[in-house]
């Protein structure tokens, strides 16, 4: 009975050992399982642990599979296979992870990284935009026309009554400051558009 139990224990330990895989990626050792690497059965990593004949797989002195790729970008790839989420350090570029995902042919990761790049670029474009204000002075008679002729891309912000040029002022004789705004790209070099409303109000009398 003891011999049988010992044999079962040895078989169990051997199966546990065979499940674990060592990868030598660019000189850095990663320890994972065949199950993890087999999440995408069309990927290079699945075929690697199957030791597909066409891959001509090499191993180092300790038996780890040799993969000549950047280890810093392999971490996010391996973690994605582990839990299905893209987690990466801030100093890594999404394009680098995408290149590795395409090399290893991990379809889901390729899709996720591309979506991340689109979201990142959209945020960067949004942060590079700023509101530019324009202030126009007009009389009460001109106000209706001013409102109806706001150019495309500009939106109404504020109407300021600055009084009348006539002693017995009426609504027609009243003077207004008509404030509008528009989103414009931030100018990195050269003169920039004024964005501070207090400064813009000094432009009394300007037109589009």
TrEMBL record:
Entry GO MF terms: cullin family protein binding
Domain of life per record: Eukaryota
InterPro entries xref list: BTB/POZ_dom (IPR000210), SKP1/BTB/POZ_sf (IPR011333), T1-type_BTB (IPR003131)
A GO biological process held by the record: proteasome-mediated ubiquitin-dependent protein catabolic process
SUPFAM superfamilies given in the database record: POZ domain
UniProt cross-references to Pfam families, sorted A to Z: BTB_2
Signal peptide segment: none
BTB domain residues: 19-121
Gene3D superfamilies: 3.30.70.2000, 6.10.140.750, Potassium Channel Kv1.1, Chain A (3.30.710.10)
A GO CC annotation given for this chain: cytoplasm
PANTHER family with a match to the protein in the record: INSOMNIAC, ISOFORM B, POTASSIUM CHANNEL TETRAMERISATION DOMAIN CONTAINING PROTEIN
Record-given protein name: BTB domain-containing protein
Species whose genome carries this gene: Candidula unifasciata
